[in-house]
Amino acid sequence: MAMSDKHSHSADGESDTDLYDSDDSQQDPTFDLDEKEQKSFEGVQKIIEGGWSLPNNIYDLFVKLAVWLFIPTLIYACGSLVTAGQLEKLKVDQCKVYLRKHGLRLTGNKDILTGRIKEHLDIMNGGGEKKYPMSSFVLNCKGDACTGDTVMFEQNVYEMFNIASRSASGPPCGTRIVAGRIVKESYGAAKQQHTFTIEVLWSKGEKPLPPLHPLLIKGRNLYRLKTVRQRWENEGDRQKMLCEKHNRGAVARTNREARVQEKEMRQMLKGNRVSLQYLQKHALAIHKSKHLSSVLPKLVDLRTSFI
């Protein structure tokens, strides 16, 4: 399948490389730990990496003992069960240890988490492209991708990528083909820009992405990539999903237009207040000037009479 669409920086200042790097996925809360978990996990990492040191008090001693005894045991138990294929014996916390280690999504109940681990193991063993071969992507989904679609596209890969500006510099160093499942779609709060979250099923070419890696792509960029998809078992279900997506998009656009109009109205009222204040000051100055011009001759006559 020929997929040779080449891309450059977009005119609105955002480069197409928004969709080439994994940094965007860090903004998706589905793949992030909550604040409490993050602090706990960072504390564990610091203790493990920093080694043992004399604690300041008895509480710190118990914390360090718990880390050194519990965490390795949890990781070992999780790894042993996964290696033995006994996923049904995993507890929810153990599932999350595995998923967190590989940067995968943490949401869902135990069945969903174990299913995600099983799929990751299958793809890790080279089953991704076998289960989702290139020949199965036969339908063009330009302009109508939705959650649940299994899609494939080719994208340019850039050597230099600026995380702060989310833009690339220099010519592309190659291309890669990505096959993935759309697991989430959202509209930005500020500009209502449509964004897809894609779980990578397999990837090959320059800098291939790891299995089930979360990749965020703006809708307009995805549609430029000559994206193709697999056929659903029931295309009627997909039509319902598309209708829901279009309805959400219409609501989002309506809300944005209302906010824009409200902002313009505030700016106009602010401008009117400034103009009104200027006119009031100008009118007062004119009034004072007229009053002075009428009083000044009388003052001159009064001064002359005294002389």
Automatic annotation (TrEMBL):
InterPro entries, sorted: DUF7699, SAP_dom, SAP_dom_sf
Q: Where is the composition biased (Basic and acidic residues)?
A: 1-12
From the record, give the transmembrane residue ranges. 61-82
Write the record's keywords in alphabetical order, separated by commas.
Answer: Membrane, Transmembrane, Transmembrane helix
SUPFAM superfamilies assigned to the protein according to its UniProt record, in alphabetical order? SAP domain (SSF68906)
| Keyword Acetylation recorded | no
Domain annotation SAP: ranges: 87-121
- Keyword Transmembrane among record annotations: yes
Which ranges are annotated Acidic residues under compositional bias?
A: 13-35
Q: Where is this region: Disordered?
A: 1-35
Where does the signal sequence lie?
none
Protein name (Swiss-Prot/TrEMBL): SAP domain-containing protein
> Where does this protein come from, organism-wise?
Escallonia rubra
